[in-house]
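Entry type: protein chain
Record version: 2
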Amino acid sequence: MSDQEDLDLGMGWSGQILEGGFRGKATYFHAKDNFKDSRGIIIASLGCDYTFNNSLMLQFEGLYNGNKHSTNILSLDQLNTTNINTKNLFLSGYSMFGSASYPFTPLINCSLAGITNFRNKLFFINPTVSISLKTNLELSFIGQIVRFYGEQVIN
């Protein structure tokens, strides 16, 4: 149970297809107070990853958030007034995630990740450089670029 208001049922799996990883998960949330109502919320993801012989790692995921109330979760007003929980971690609708990571040396790793949400026309890029200084000590440079194309969808 994620909170006192909902019952939730989830499942997930992780495995391998050929030489790459394959995984997915889904969670269904249903209000306890209105259990006879057939409407619930589904949050789901399906992803794969592959690491090449040269240590380049690629990852792709499709994400679905059926919670229409998390449409404006990136607005400052909603971030300050909304109780963030597992039902509204990201914008509603379909999103795509991709990342690439490569260790240029055993001590320096660079990665580039991105996510886009088609319904809200959001594009997010996250470049990262991590430098291992010594055992259990790392210096990281992290960038975050967010862009909205068009108008935000408001329910």
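Comment: The chain has a mean pLDDT of 82.
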